[in-house]
Structure formats: C-alpha cells, structure tokens
Write a structure and sequence with these properties.
There is one protein chain. This protein is an alpha/beta fold. The chain has a single domain (about 5-250), classed as TIM Barrel, CATH 3.20.20. The chain has 12 helices and 8 strands. It has helices at about 15-30, 45-55, 80-85, 95-100, 105-120, 130-135, 140-150, 155-160, 180-195, 200-205, 220-225, 240-250; strands spanning about 5-10, 35-40, 60-65, 90-95, 120-125, 165, 210, 230-235. It has an 8-stranded parallel barrel, surrounded by 5 helices. The chain starts with 5 loop residues before the first strand and ends with a helix. The chain binds 1,3-dihydroxyacetonephosphate (13P). 1,3-dihydroxyacetonephosphate (13P) binds near residues 167, 212 and 232.
Length: about 250
C-alpha cells in the first residue's frame, strides 16, 4: 500500500438512529490526525443524522445501495438525487449480499455505477468470488467478468472516482479472512484488468479495498500488501473500540 488507506465501515442492517449518532460522536471526537480516510455507511434512515454529525469532520458518509433512476414508481427505493440532497459522499454498489440475496445482476449494477458517477456520488464497487468459484479455479475469470460488465461505458475520467472493493464471498462474516497472499493476488489481478480496460496510470491510482473478516489483528498485514489500499469492514466496524483500533493501526 502506498496511498493513505481508506478504512470504510459497512454497517449493513445494524444500528438505530440513536446508536448511529452515539457512535459517530465518539468517532469524530477520537479522530485527530490519523492517516486513514474514514468512510461510514449507516442504514438509509440514519444517513441524514450521520451527515449532520460528520459534516465538519473528515469522515465521509454514504449509503449501502441506491436506485439508478432519478425518480419513478419504484416502491421502497431511494434515488441518487435524494442521496445528493443530504450530501452523501459515496455509495456501496454490488455488495455480495445485494447480488446473492437480492439477486442484483451485473447489468443492474452497471446502471447503478453509471448513475452514481453522473450524480457525483463516489461508487465503491464490490466484486468477489464465491467459495465454489474459488474451488473450481475460476476466481480470476469471475473478477474479470464482474469488472468488465459493471464498468461498461464508465469513461477514463469517471474511472478516477471509482473505488473497488474485493470481497471474497466466502470470507464475509465467516471469520475466514483471505490470507494476505490470496488477497494480494486478487488485487494484483484486479489492477491488471483495470489496466486492460483503461490504462496503467488509472489502474495504479485506483483504490482497491479488501473486505471479509477484517479485524484489528489482521489489518496491518493486509495493508502491508503492495496492492491493498484499504479495507471495507462489516462486523468489526460496529464496535467503536475495535473500529478505532483498526483506524489507528492503518
Ligand atoms: P465482515 O467484515 O463482517 O466479514 O463483512 C465484510 C463486508 O461485507 C463489508 O462490506
């Protein structure tokens, strides 16, 4: 890792508004000059309050999903304009839980990526293989397929605002972290695909985060890998002490 790392918390369907406020108040008062850029993605209902607390800090606040259309008859969905109205900095797209549980496919995720960029909301595009795909030696093929389809029609200029998160599905919430070697190899391959789709400069400057059972005791070795620029963290981002320990070690 050569860049200042991004340490992002994906809170999934955890934390009420009150819990979100309490956490962010503690977090903002504990941050001074840490190297890490801190991103937090609370639930939709807490976003407005989270941004209020974070607005005079360096903490970036974003959502865990969004619809790609600007408005319409889409019951239960949130538009990019609604997120922009409350100054969202980023949006997580294509998380494996969206792909596997809510059946989002590559073409839908591509529409969301394009829409987030058009609306100036920085996408964190998640990709990653399942255990079955890894066992059948198709990890690289899956990563290339997801990148190629999810980034379709994303221009070179737009690509400069895209963050990639490599999250092997078998490592999410399982306690089974990818070994530093496995993660580094995947990140290196992702950079090769970005070089092929764009160019070497863009590939080198793109942030590629690792996600999957990141904890205080494995963050340093993961960030020590040349191609790992940060982490997208689920479980360990929910407890303030644990999350701060990760930030302080980054
Ligand atoms: P865990 O850190 O709980 O494994 O979750 C990773 C994740 O899905 C982050 O988006």
């Amino acid at each position: 890792m050569e860049k200042n790392p991004i340490i992002a918390g994906n809170w999934k369907m955890y934390k009420t508004i009150k819990e979100t406020k309490d956490f962010l108040e503690k977090l903002s008062s504990s941050l001074n000059n840490q190297r890490a850029n801190v991103y937090i993605a609370p639930s939709f209902i807490s976003l407005f309050f989270a941004k209020e607390i974070a607005k005079d800090t360096k903490i970036k606040i974003g959502s865990q999903n969004m619809h790609y259309e600007s408005e319409g008859a889409f019951t239960g969905e949130i538009s990019p304009g609604m997120l922009k109205e409350i100054d969202m900095d980023f949006v997580i797209l294509g998380h494996s839980e969206r792909r596997n549980v809510f059946k989002e496919d590559n073409s839908l995720i591509n529409k969301k990526v394009l829409s987030s960029l058009e609306n100036n909301i920085q996408p964190i595009l998640c990709i990653g293989e399942t255990e079955k795909e890894r066992d059948s030696n198709s990890t690289n093929e899956v990563l290339e397929d997801q990148l190629t389809k999810n980034l379709l029609n994303v221009s070179k200029t737009q690509m400069k605002n895209v963050i990639i998160a490599y999250e092997p599905v078998w490592a999410i919430g399982t306690g089974k972290t990818a070994t530093p070697d496995i993660a580094e190899n995947a990140h290196l391959y992702i950079r090769k695909v970005i070089t092929k789709l764009y160019d070497k400069d863009i590939a080198n400057s793109t942030y590629i985060l690792y996600g999957g059972s990141v904890k205080p005791d494995n963050i340093e070795i993961l960030l020590g890998q040349h191609n790992i620029d940060g982490a997208l963290i689920g479980g360990a981002s929910l407890k303030i002490d644990t999350f701060l320990e990760i930030i302080n070690k980054s």
